[in-house]
Amino acid sequence: MSHPDPNGPAATRPWRIGDELDNPVTKEHARIIEAPWQNSTGRARAEMTARVGARVLGEHLHPGLVERFTVLDGELTVRRDGKVSKLVEGQTGEVRAGQWHDWWNAADRDARVIVEVEPGERFAHMLETLFGLAQLGCVDEKGMPNLLQMALTGREFSDTVQFKSPPPAVQRAVFAALAPLAHAMGYRATYPQLSRSQLAPDPADVAAARAAAPWRATRRSPDRGATAVAGPDRRCISTWLAARGS
């Protein structure tokens, strides 16, 4: 199968905390521990298991987001701007927006890593698309979709991820030329059956988050007038839901 059915049944169940994603090709397994709508910065967090031999698709950068890796167990080899280092248990490595980077597990045991992406909503949609394509057998031995698929998916998520090779300028030209053909052949940038992150969160999760989220109140002081009392702030949840029309 070269691509999923563009008219296939759409996903109906949103991602929930504790749900898991798996990429059998790149050997990455992730368990969701925080969703973008749960905090004011749109941060997404997951506990990733990088199995022995795991490796991300290739050297890349994220134009508008910050990515952090905190190793819980094992070790992760990271390359940032050409400099290779090793993260071991308890260490955190940060990748700045626009910084070329790559990572892999060269050790003889699995690594458990907290991955934090801020902001994370677009990243989550990109990730579930690539993982979903891998699970359906629509990628090569490195986990990369074919050129026609990337002509659409690469353009769609160019604000989120850009690969170093071939040079980005070449990618943009090739993707623009191939995009009409790819679409005519049934390819799509994303697929409804692989887009659970685009669904409104489960009402039970929203209620639980609102109950546990920060709040903000005011009180009136006799000599200072209205004074803000810092506390948990629920506005991030309401803002995210309003943006989704939920």
What structural class is derived from the secondary structure elements?
A: alpha+beta
Radius of gyration: 20 Å
Distance between the termini: 35 Å
Give the helix level as a range of percent.
25-40%
How many E strands?
Answer: 13
User: Which overall shape is indicated by the principal axes computed on the Cα atoms?
Assistant: globular
The fourth-level CATH homologous superfamily of the largest domain is Jelly Rolls
CATH top-level class of the largest domain: Mainly Beta
The secondary-structure element order is: EEEEEEEEEEHHEHHEEH
What share of residues are in beta strands? 25-35%
Instruction: Strand order, main sheet: write it out.
Output: 1-2-3-10-5-8
Question: How would you sum up the major sheet?
Answer: 6 strands, antiparallel
Annotation field: number of helices: 5
CATH architecture of the largest domain: Sandwich
What's the domain count?
Answer: 2
Compose a concise summary of this entry:
By secondary structure, this protein is of the alpha+beta class. The chain has helices spanning 121-135, 147-156, 168-184, 203-212, 235-244, and strands at 20-23, 28-34, 44-50, 60-61, 66-73, 75-80, 83-88, 92-95, 101-104, 111-118, 162-163, 217-221, 225-229.
Give your account of this protein's structure.
This protein has 246 residues and is an alpha+beta fold. The chain contains five helices and 13 strands. Helix 2 (147-156) crosses helix 3. The longest helix has 17 residues, at 168-184. It is globular, with a radius of gyration of 20 Å.
